[in-house]
Write a structure and sequence with these properties.
Blueprint: E1 3-4, H1 8-13, E2 17-21, E3 24-29, H2 33-42, E4 45-48, E5 53-58, H3 62-69, E6 82-88, E7 94-104, E8 107-112, H4 117-126, E9 133-136, E10 141-147, H5 151-156, E11 171-176, E12 179-184, E13 193-199, H6 205-215, E14 222-224, H7 226-236, H8 270-279, E15 283-290, E16 302-304, E17 310-319, E18 326-333, E19 342-347, E20 350-356
Parallel strand pairs: 1-3, 4-14
Antiparallel strand pairs: 2-3, 4-10, 5-8, 5-9, 6-7, 7-8, 10-13, 11-12, 12-13, 15-18, 15-20, 16-17, 16-19, 17-18, 19-20
Length: 364
């Protein structure tokens, strides 16, 4: 039985195309992916991302648990700051990527992918040998992402919190239309914007949605679905769990070496990752741009060299709405990872020429 977010009735009413995604009934699109994508790039759009998972970790041993399960160094956080990170298995494979928020002196919020909520909670629980308080609040946490150049002007009408002072990857608690929310300057689109967390037991979620839609009306705000979320994140080269990162990939080959802090002390997967680093990487996640107007790379398509030998596989691909070209990401043998290298995507029994390009594909 699919779960529904607190905004399900609104999506139905707005005529959204709904699909089952990670066990939730979620909107793929409303007006259409192109319209929604353009709204976020040029003005403002709003996404219901309440399907994401939220765990609170608190108590004197909270930091110790987070340091053990994540690869980034959470000791660098302070209340009001957030950090992108991931969790690994002992062999270095990725359990999930997540955002760690420090919400208080000894309190943290972990935000994980919708499809991994149960798995992640069980995984962290199994490693909680130090007795930190760990609670899964996913079912009563609503999350809206308001993204785009006009996001601040839209939301500022509804709050006294000075949104322009909230720097990227920091957050503040405040009131939005009278409701208690976390304003988090994070998002998955590459645009300015905020992710708004609030407790559905305390807040009328639909009222919040309607107030934001009304505030953004003068800027042409659009409700946006998972389709535009995917095209927007791909233009920025942001990895998606289940596509670009999985239990069979590790952070170093997935271009996540920058969040993997070997000097922070022990964490799960550290030894395996150190060994992989010393041995040298055999493959690398790369971005690429495809030549030709109709050549759209899709997940699972083979990546080849000029001779037609398999050298990798596409993990994510789409037609870039901004560029009007096929773009994608995939793992390739180490000899083909350098920017500017010519590779070929096997599309409908033909080879489409592509160039290895370091994301983001659009320069902000």
């Amino acid at each position: 039985m699919s779960k529904k977010t607190p905004f399900y009735a609104i999506h139905k009413q707005a005529g959204a195309k709904l699909v089952d995604f990670a066990g939730f009934q979620m909107p793929v699109q409303y007006e259409g992916i192109k319209t929604e994508h353009a709204a976020v790039r040029e003005a403002v759009g709003m996404f219901d991302v309440s399907h994401m998972g939220e765990f609170f970790v608190s108590g004197p041993n909270a930091l110790e648990l987070i340091q053990k399960v994540t690869v980034n160094d959470a000791s660098k956080l302070s209340p009001g700051k957030a950090q992108y990170s991931c969790m690994c298995y002992e062999d270095g494979g990725i359990v999930d990527d997540l955002i760690v928020y420090q919400t208080g002196e000894e309190e943290y919020m972990l935000v994980v992918n919708a499809s991994n909520i149960e798995k992640d909670f069980d995984w962290i629980s199994s490693l909680n040998t130090m007795g930190a308080d760990l609670v899964n609040v996913s079912d009563k946490c609503a999350l809206l992402a308001v993204q785009g150049p006009k996001s601040i002007e839209t939301l500022q009408k509804l709050t006294d919190t000075d949104l322009s002072s909230i720097k990227f990857y920091t957050f503040e608690e405040g009131k939005l239309n009278g409701a208690e929310v976390y304003f988090s300057a994070t998002g998955y689109t590459g645009e300015k914007g905020f992710e708004l967390y609030f407790d559905t037991d305390a807040v009328d979620a639909e009222k919040v949605w309607n107030a934001i839609m009304e505030a953004g009306e003068e800027f042409g705000i659009e409700p946006c679905g998972l389709g535009a979320r995917d095209t927007l994140r791909l233009e920025m080269g942001f990895a998606l769990y289940g596509n670009d990162i999985t239990k069979d990939t590790h952070p170093l080959e997935a271009r996540l070496g920058w969040i993997t802090k070997f000097d922070k002390g022990d964490f799960i997967g550290k030894e395996a990752l150190q060994q992989k680093k010393e041995e040298g990487l055999q493959r690398q996640l790369v971005g690429f741009v495809v030549e030709g107007e109709r050549n759209i790379p899709r997940q699972g398509y083979e990546i080849q060299n000029e001779a037609g030998d398999a050298i990798g596989e596409v993990t994510s691909g789409t037609m870039s709405i901004t560029l009007g070209k096929g773009i994608g990401m995939g793992y390739v043998d180490k000899d083909y990872k350098d920017e500017g290298t010519e590779i070929y995507i096997a599309i409908r029994k033909k080879q489409a020429k592509a160039t290895v390009t370091r994301p983001p594909f659009i320069k902000k």
